[in-house]
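On clarity, I found the account of how folds are encoded harder to follow than it need be. For illustration, here is how one protein appears when written out as sequence plus structure tokens:

:::
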Amino acid sequence: MKIEHLGAKNCVTGSCHLVQTSPGSAGGVNILVDCGKDYGNDPELAFDRFPVSPRDIGYLFLTHAHIDHIGRVPDLIDAGFQGEIICTHATKALLIPMLHDALSFTDKSDKQVQRLEKAIDELSWGFEYRKIGLGFRV
């Protein structure tokens, strides 16, 4: 297993971390944890500089719906991501409204925004934690 910090490594915003099981092997799985927007002078790694193509990322796990954790999801989809977006029900409920607001500050047309929102809705699913004994279960 390998973990690479692609954003928010030495700064606060732009959370993005790649978890690879069996890196370099055909049977490995690529999981991205968050895909956030950076702010201020925090660096943002271009998708073509990622260790794997967005097309090869099987899962995007979103920890919560702050823009510095979800803000680049539309761009990730535009770059070829077609995997599953996994998050809690609460995060899924906030995902589209938060991104819709953020996309209103871009040069994307209404049609492009609608396409991205539809793709995000179709790729994402929520789950809830249920407390059992001393731990949590999905």
